[in-house]
Amino acid sequence: xxxxxxxxQLPGLTQAPITSxxxxxxxxxxxxxxxxxxxxxxxxxxxxLAQLRDPVLFPGLSPDQRSGVTGIPNDPxxxxxxxxxxxxxxxxxxxIYPPIAEAYFTVVALFTPWSAGTLGLQIAAALIAxxxxxxxxxxxxxxxxxxxxxxxxALEASNAAHVDVLAALFITAAVVTTARRPKLAAVLxxxxxxxxxxxxxxxxxxxxxxxxVALGTFIASYVPHVLAVGTLVLGFLPGYLNQEGxxxxxxxxxxxxxxxxxxxxxxxxxxxxxxxAALAFHRARRDPIALTCCWLYGAALLIATPTYPWYGLxxxxxAALAxRPEWIAVPLASxxxxxxxxxxxxxxxxxxxxxxxxxxxxxxxxxxxAKSGLTAPPFxxxxxxxxxxxxxxxxxxxx
Length: 399
Description:
Blueprint: H1 2-9, H2 22-34, H3 99-110, H4 119-139, H5 141-148, H6 151-159, H7 164-177, H8 182-193, H9 211-229, H10 237-243, H11 254-257, H12 262-283, H13 289-304, H14 313-322, H15 329-339, H16 344-372, H17 380-383
Helix pairs in contact: 1-4, 2-3, 4-5, 4-6, 4-7, 5-14, 7-8, 7-14, 8-9, 12-13, 13-14, 15-16
């Protein structure tokens, strides 16, 4: 199982990232931190960091040439996404990545020669994907293949080196350890949120697993950076949310966009998100935590409909952990939506199709259970002191 997962990761290492240029930003952020500067306080084109440029990241701008950029622009959200002088996307704005992601970039940069470009990060992401395959195989070898042998994982880990694979590892470790060591599980969830913010959406599922510890871990990771750069620690996150349509709803919630204008879309999306969080909080008492995390994370993606397929990497791991393969339709739909960027109706229909597949899968499963006459016993993992959900095969058991 794990050996085959490793073989699946090898082809992606043979070429530069295909699906995005995010890995070049990762390389830059790690390099900036090793030089003693903060990626929250500088933009890649800043001439103050000209000595960190190399032909891999800046094929059109040498250390001796001036870009004309100093400091952080007043309105970075209005800057173009790409600049022909560099492979780094949004080179005129500071980073958006949280602190543990930045620490990861720095560690990898420490062991990666500049001439290797993104290869160090690609190898690191491949190793994380393989490690996660092993962790899932310990729980259930059959379902671990859903992650370890997935073409999506191979493409977005060893090739694109997306940091979401690290978030997936932390989330899975949090779910697996929550029964025996709830405080450690909370720390791991907070760490996942400090890699990519989306994992914080799973807090309602950890209602009895010290969610305050998770939030404390997340906040604590920011403290050194706040002390160093103050409010600049937000980086380009506000501008990114604006550019990506999260603030006005103009290019998000593609399913709701089939029926609603942007303003109403935002309200309905917020109401749905709160309702799902409340439902997860309620169901956490009786359902396996892997199952709750799976549908909560997947539903969040269906509501927000980000067009970036790598956002679905944690969902693939959770689907394997909970034995719910129908949720793979969500990241698969994101690839089609990614290729259809700019065609709003088409994107909405693609995500709607994924939602229909998920609902159909859930319906068929419940019908099969009902016809078989099976009943599910209560899950002590979520209700009482005799918590045994750490046992393999129990995390995603049918109800």
